[in-house]
Amino acid sequence: MNLNKTKNEKVNLDQLLGKLKKEDSNYSNLCKRMKIVYWIFIPLYTIIAFIHYFDTKELTDLIAGLLLVAAFLIFALVFGSYQKEYKNVDYSLPTLLMLKQAAERYHPFRKKSILIFLAVFLMNASFNLRSQPLFNTVESQIVFFSVFILAIIIGLVIWYFKYKPLRDNALANIAEIEGN
Question: For this UniProt entry, which segments traverse the membrane (predicted)?
Fold first, then answer.
């Protein structure tokens, strides 16, 4: 199912709808799996945080562990929210409204994503608060933000090739319906 179009080729709405349903289902399943992973990590890392605290007697180690658990909690809640959103898409809505919602769902940067940045900030703080860090603070920041930026770049490349055509075709159909 190729969603690429030339300038004179009309976007097939039925084809787009089929692809949206497939990708919404895939994304919902991915979010469900990620949510499960984080819900497993939360109690596991809570226990690890307390065990590590009892070993070191350093309050900063306990705080670091609990910050990591808080980050995992945010990730679990965000993935749960995304799973629910993608699982419960209503394709029976009026076409224009359904297409606008699809264009919003497949936008690379969404308002909900701000919470992910909070979780990443908490993870970063957690790694730097440990009483015996693996790296010094500067090295830790360089590694952490390099990995973070690389993850964003990889995510945008995946979005560009996999989800941007969906969004572009939804926007093209919106423009056609609105007469723009």
Answer: 36-54, 60-79, 114-130, 142-161
